[in-house]
């Protein structure tokens, strides 16, 4: 069973494309006329030129919007496409779920004629800068340690390229792990946590003590005192990175 067949049933309720992140992704895709979305999920951030989405979870495919690009059930390691099938391949917050990273990256390079765009995160930066995992949920950070891929390693596998920081706005529409960095109460909502694989896969029993501490600190005002410097910021860099490789 694909991971998101189990944890993805409510994914599209909280995971919608943020226009600022979308603009950065689409700029990285540049003038690509046709795009294949690998590990596509429910289809967030797919540009108009998307010709095919490849996704292992039927649950996620079922949450794609009417009019979205056609989707097939498949995995990154064995893309059902010919060589040089599209100008670009994109893979957004998905490589940490792949069973064979090198094979998946090789497939992106095989299918893309001109460009590969990958959205991932730098676990070292994430651990140090994001208060939720640093101060309250180190168990979740430890889980991420087992699956996070250093951006430098990804770039090596991709054959080089550049990486861009992806700042997360304080009112981020896409409920990814760090989306609520200035809205801490949101992490107490089970539906929000269900849309974040880091938290959904760590498990509620493991998270409960840290979430109870967070609830207490929010109730007493301790969180707001400790993180007063965040409350006037519009964006933060907690390690999300966009990797762009020209072929």
Report on this structure:
- The protein is 39% helix and 18% strand.
- The chain has 247 residues and is an alpha/beta fold.
- The chain has one domain (3-246): Vaccinia Virus protein VP39 (Rossmann fold, 3-Layer(aba) Sandwich), CATH 3.40.50.150.
- The strands form two sheets. It has a seven-stranded mixed beta sheet, sandwiched between helices. The chain has a two-stranded antiparallel sheet with strand order 7-8.
- Helix 4 links the parallel strand 2 and strand 3.
Side by side, the strands of the main sheet go: 3-2-1-4-5-9-6
In total, the number of domains comes to 1
CATH architecture: 3-Layer(aba) Sandwich
What value does the Rg take, in angstroms?
18 Å
* Helix share bin: 25-40%
Question: What is the fourth-level CATH superfamily?
Answer: Vaccinia Virus protein VP39
- Under CATH, the topology is which? Rossmann fold
List the secondary-structure elements in sequence, H or E.
Answer: HHHEEHEEHEHHHHEEHHHHEE
CATH class, anyone? Alpha Beta
Q: Which regions contain 5 or more consecutive residues with pLDDT less than 50? A: none
| Count of separate DSSP helical elements | 13
Query: What is the mean predicted local confidence, pLDDT?
Result: 95
